[in-house]
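Q: Convert this sequence to structure tokens.
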Amino acid sequence: MRFFAAASLLIAVPAAAAATQAGFMLDGPAVQGGLVRGRAPAGSTALFLGDRPVALAADGRFVLGFDRDQPATATLSARMADGRVAEHSVAVVPRSWRIEHVNIAQRPGVVDEAYRRRREAELERIRAARASVSDAPGWRQRFIWPARGRISGRFGAQRIFRGVPASYHSGVDVAGGAGAPVVAPADGIVVLSGPPIFSLEGNLVIIDHGMGLNSAFLHLAASDVAVGQRVRQGQRIGAIGSSGRATGPHLHWSMMWNGSRLDPQLVAGPMAN
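A:
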């Protein structure tokens, strides 16, 4: 047994978690909400995690993301040109989440028809942006924090109202002060940037880092980038604000890999002073 430390989290990991199997190489343990980079066996032409296709770079490198509620095991398989299949059984380390039980019923929001139509259009824009495919190389990089400040909200936290679970917190919140700079955590291509402002997310920027991996930055005071723009790691993309549905100025940073929600705090590691 060894321990994997990230972003003030200490996660017990079996010693064999990063070992090679069937020619696969993974650069670290698979953890709920985490990101793993790896290399496929030589000669691989296609890669799958379960039945989901995984993008494979020309040098055989790939990246995998594991959702908050990812089951304990997953199968990574590579298909060769001659029809052979190599498989790797991935043990996914579970995590404990901050769960708050509330002994009241959750109050439903009041939604009129005009808002419903507006929200559906907003969600379609977000889905289309996150489905973008590009050659951005950011997925290969070690991610940095896009903003500095107090962590005011953690990934995976959830309230349960009289046995009925609400949606869990899908990112990490950084209370860095109104107007503080927000930078790209890795290289990428801007696939969404307002206007118009989003009803919940406010000023929203989404960056595609390549290979199905993307980041979203919510509640910005303003966006400094445009759709289609290539950005470099550390480049300013906006400023912390409280636009949209926010109780105060903060950055909500969320990450996804092929539809799986990831914990940015686990991906970026401890925030340096």
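The chain has two domains: 2-93, 99-268.
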